[in-house]
Design a protein that fits this description.
Blueprint (H helix, E strand, L loop, with lengths): L1 H8 L8 H16 L4 H6 L8 H10 L4 E3 L6 E3 H12 L4 H7 L13 H10 L1 H19 L3 H9 L8
Antiparallel strand pairs: 1-2
Amino acid sequence: MISSIRSIWGEAAHTTDRSTRQMDRILAGAYSYYGYDLADLAAGRQNNPITEQMFFNYLAGKGRATIKDPSTGEELGTYEWLQRSVLKNSGGLLPLVLEEIDGLDRDQIMNYESNYLAALIAENPIQATRARIAFRADLIEVFGEDAAAIFAYLKTFDQFGTE
């Protein structure tokens, strides 16, 4: 699913390391736990029905409050990671994608959960492309063809992964 987000940003823009993939797999389990199918939700163009509290309850109930980072061995808080991830995803281009999809509220923070967002993008590629074109036009309007300024601006969204 994350590959859909990568495709809209470009390969270099959304690095997915092993801990991110592991977190996304854990969080994806919440959908089936609560009886939802991501593809059906995305096709229905509805806001994410899974709330932060539901994710928290799922993680606590499954004993997944933390995981070991596969790279460093340090403990990572899954709920805290979810919160950082949705905030990171809620900037830049991705809110424009939600605006393009009728029926979605770009202000509902859980619409930016990575698995849900990827399902929406996969189900709505035309809207995602329109949002990407509009975002690029906005960047050029503000920064002109100054690639360094555009890159500096995009880095403020922290959507480039780890260095």
